[in-house]
Structures are given as structure tokens and as C-alpha cells.
Specification:
Length: 172
């Protein structure tokens, strides 16, 4: 029996269930640490982001947005773009505040959240800096921009190994 295991056995009396639990915790911590190490190797947001982003134009009706874009593609967040210029976004939280009977006559331009620089990051941002921003803001998703153009979207799910470690959980 290794010395550390023996110490644990002497402290707890039984030891083996505690050793198995400790081994599991150490394995999870090592996996999370390995995921973070991979991200730290010069990785940028641009290398991890989703480039093929489904967008909506401001003149679309909300029932079209939900029925033809969001539901079929399992989306909770859609950037609003007009002639290549990023204007803002629509998300499920925003839609929840609008009565469904009004969706057929309401256009995206009437309700979308105007572009907020706090929700945008550049492609060149290091992933570690993005993780810190996620931690501080509680947000899990950011639009990747260059000037007024949408380059992609990055979310916690684009960062393998990090999502399992529990960092960045919170708002979408």
C-alpha cells in the first residue's frame, strides 16, 4: 500500500471508499487541467469559434425566426445582420417576453437587442482571456467581430475540456 494511501486508511479507518473517491476527484481535476493547458498553447478565439453562423435580417417576422430558424436548428441565440453589418441579436429570453400571438405581426427590427460591445470579442483574443471574461460576466456565448462585421460565435461548448470543469457557467 502506498504511503499516502496508508495515511488515508489510518485517518479514516476504512480508507478504500475514500481512496476511490479521491482518485476520481484527482482524475477530474487532471482532465480539466489538461483541457486548460491545451487552450493555453497560443489558442485564440478565432481558432475555436463557430464560423458558419445562422443569422436573421431585421425585416424577418418573429414567427418566421422561431419557426424556420431557431426551432429547426435548435438555437437559443441568433445574431441580427443586415447587408453584412452586425446590428445585435435575438435570444430566447427576449422572445419569452413577447406574447406569441404578437409574433406574426412583429418584426425582428422592433425587438432585437442592439449590439452591445460587452458581448463581442475579437478573433485575436486569447482563449484564456475569453475564459476570464466568461467567469467575470457569467456569460457563456460571445459574438466574434471585426469592426462591424460578424466573424463567428464562440461559446463554452467550443472549448472542450473547459465545459466539464464547470468554469463559465451562467448566462447565455
Amino acid at each position: 500500500m502506498p504511503l499516502n494511501a496508508m495515511r488515508l486508511y489510518l485517518v479514516t479507518g476504512n480508507g478504500w471508499p475514500e481512496i476511490a473517491g479521491l482518485a476520481g476527484m484527482l482524475a477530474a481535476a487532471a482532465a480539466a487541467s489538461f483541457g486548460l493547458m491545451r487552450l493555453r498553447r497560443g489558442r485564440t478565439v478565432g481558432a475555436r469559434m463557430t464560423r458558419e453562423v445562422i443569422t436573421v435580417t431585421p425585416d424577418a417576422l418573429l414567427d418566421t425566426l422561431v419557426g424556420q430558424i431557431m426551432l429547426p436548428n435548435h438555437l437559443t441565440f441568433v445574431p441580427v445582420v443586415e447587408e453584412g453589418v452586425l446590428l445585435g441579436h435575438v435570444d430566447s429570453a427576449l422572445l419569452a417576453g413577447i406574447d406569441r400571438e404578437n409574433w406574426t405581426g412583429t418584426r425582428v427590427e422592433d425587438v432585437y437587442a442592439v449590439l452591445d460591445p460587452a458581448l463581442c470579442v475579437p478573433e485575436t483574443m486569447p482563449v484564456t482571456q475569453l475564459l476570464e471574461r466568461m467567469r467575470q460576466s457569467g456569460r457563456r456565448r460571445f459574438m466574434v467581430t471585426h469592426k462591424d462585421r460578424l466573424c463567428g460565435v464562440i461559446s463554452l461548448s467550443d472549448l472542450p475540456g473547459v465545459a466539464r470543469s464547470g468554469s463559465g457557467r451562467g448566462k447565455t
